What does this fold into?
Amino acid sequence: MRHALCLVLSLLPAGGCARLFADVVHQPKSVIVNQLHYMPNAANLMALPQRFPSSTLQVTATADEVNWTYSLGGKEVCRFTAHVADEGQDRSSVWTTSEDISSDGQGFLCGAVNVAGKESVAATIEGRAADRQKVETELAAVVVTNYASMQKSIAKEMTDMAPPKTQCREYGS
It folds into this structure.
């Protein structure tokens, strides 16, 4: 089992695990988990990081958490989790963590996931639309911070999509 030190941060650059958002909600745990698993469209920005080429998203839920697992080129690179704990009397605590599980420098996707995830969870439990302008501003910072990593990943993607190299003979040989 993986153990990671989780720090309270508002935005985590690539690498590590971070506790990104925490709140106490006046609703039962099962209601909150269901709301997070089936986020309203106005609050849900979790598909935003899928705009990277070859990225996919898988969402799973248990009684205590909802997991968004992002893959890039078929490899898992980031796991974002909303944890929900029963606090009694129709109260639940909600917190999110994110783990960069990329092994080849593609952690920039996790930066985008962190931004989209913390705003989507906050908007869902607060019953409001996600603040897209705030998210766009934070995503711009992620792009600037992780530019070299993104450039490397895009170059690799283009190479993988190119036709195979063959050895051609000169005409007439």
